[in-house]
Specification:
This protein is mostly helical and 277 residues long. 65% of the residues lie in helices and 1% in strands. The protein has helices spanning 2-6, 10-23, 26-38, 43-54, 65-77, 81-91, 99-104, 135-154, 160-167, 178-221, 230-233, 239-248, 254-272; strands at 92-93, 122-123.
Length: 277
């Protein structure tokens, strides 16, 4: 992303800055403006640095509204200039949202059960990207999530394994004591961070498989014969095989499984249905 940003013009960064200002709250927008104004040529890394200090989403080991807001913000932060332009066009409409906008922003699809057309002009925000923009953006968003969880875990003086070992010592950490309760609280925070780190790593692996399948389809659609290579025949490089393995794994958390199966599975179907590649 930084490479693409570095080759863009200053006017392009100005429009991105204004869009981000419209999509975020005043406090975040102010920090973003400062980041862009300081160094337009390095704005992408600068605005990420600014956001990480002013935006916090509290999540748990679940798939709830805060989880969806977290993923939405990650998708916006992972956008390159083309993707920002894409969601900005979809995010503002005066004659009702397009089907693409309805799906991207999690709106009821017109014509579907419960679907309602919109007659008013609306600006969606960075909290409303409820569907992956594309597999490449989603992978970058997962990389960002992995980086965020890693940095958060690095700030603790002890590891999760050390906390588990400490809690076995009821002499040093007596039951119902404030010291033990504090250790339990911190351990819980680390368990949430490890959960989302695992989510990010798993998603990146599944997205890589999807991108591999898309590459093979692209070769076929371009007139080339699909090579029956060992790599292609390897079931571990097939989406359905990986999802089935996750379903058979009792240790795979259902929120991660559902995301990979339902969300990434829908992205895969969408991309496979696009022509030409």
């Amino acid at each position: 992303m930084s490479g693409e940003g570095g080759s863009s013009s200053s006017s392009s960064f100005s429009s991105r800055r204004d869009l981000l200002h419209a999509m975020m709250d005043p406090g975040t927008a102010s920090s973003l403006r400062e980041a862009f104004d300081r160094s337009p040529s390095s704005a992408p890394s600068s605005y990420r640095h600014a956001v990480r200090h002013v935006k916090r989403v509290r999540v748990c080991v679940s798939n709830n509204e805060n989880t969806r807001i977290l993923f939405s913000m990650l998708r916006v932060l992972a956008c390159n200039s083309t993707e920002i332009d894409h969601i900005s066009r979809l995010g503002t409409y005066s004659a009702g949202p397009s089907t693409a906008a309805q799906r991207l922003f999690g709106l009821p699809v017109t014509g579907a059960p419960g679907g309602q057309p919109s007659s008013s002009s609306t600006l969606r925000t960075c909290r409303d990207i409820r569907y992956p923009i594309n597999p490449y953006n989603e992978r970058r968003a997962m990389e960002l999530l992995l980086d965020i969880t890693g940095r958060a875990l690095s700030k603790y003086p002890t590891s999760l394994a050390q906390d588990n070992a400490d809690l076995l010592d009821e002499t040093a950490y007596p039951k119902y004591s404030n010291k033990r309760n504090a250790k339990l609280q911190v351990r819980g925070e680390k368990e949430v961070l490890h959960h989302f780190a695992l989510w990010a790593r798993t998603a990146m692996h599944v997205i890589d498989i999807i991108l591999h399948e898309l590459s093979e389809e692209r070769k076929t659609d371009n007139g080339g014969a699909r090579a029956a290579t060992a790599n292609h025949n390897n079931e571990e490089l097939e989406f359905d095989y990986v999802i089935q393995a996750m379903e058979d794994d009792d240790d795979c958390h259902f929120t991660i499984l559902r995301y990979c199966s339902d969300v990434l599975g829908a992205v895969r179907r969408d991309e496979l249905g696009k022509h030409p590649y």
